[in-house]
Amino acid sequence: MAISMLDQMLFKLSCGHKVVLGRLVGKNDWTCDQCRQTTDLSSSPYNAAFDQDLETANLIDSLEKARGNKVRRLA
Q1: If you write DSSP's letter for every residue of 15-38 in order, what string do you get?
Q2: Which of 9, 14, 26, 31 could, after both became Cys, cross-link 21 (CB 3.0–4.6 A)?
Q3: Is the pLDDT score of 15 beyond 80?
Q4: Which of 69, 49, 68 is nearest to 9 (CA)?
């Protein structure tokens, strides 16, 4: 069983800290757990980077499933 890339890929916030990509899905902004600075995920350049990372994670998960592996979310 493979762990979803949503639970493995890190996304760089505006403050420079990173958060697991899957925690950001469905959010418009994110407040960093470490420094409390908010990143607007709907503004440039974060929206494009988030969309690209999400697409990559979903593609990798799809490839794992196509190989016959189960993909599990940790959340």
Answers
A1: TS-EEEGGGGTT-SEEE-TTT--E
A2: 9
A3: yes
A4: 49
- Reading the block at residue 33, the tokens are 């757990």
Q: What is the mean pLDDT of residues 52-66?
A: 97
Alpha-carbon gap, residue 11 to 22, rounded angstroms? 9
Residue 30 has pLDDT above 90, yes or no: yes
Compute φ and ψ for 22, nearest 5 degrees: -60, -25
Tokens coding 75: 């959340």
Domain range enclosing 62? 2-72
Number of domains in the chain: 1
Q: What pLDDT, on a 0 to 100 scale, did the predictor assign at position 21?
A: 97
Q: Please give the Cα distance from 8 to 3 (Å, whole number).
A: 8
Within the chain, how many helices (H) and strands (E) appear? 1, 6
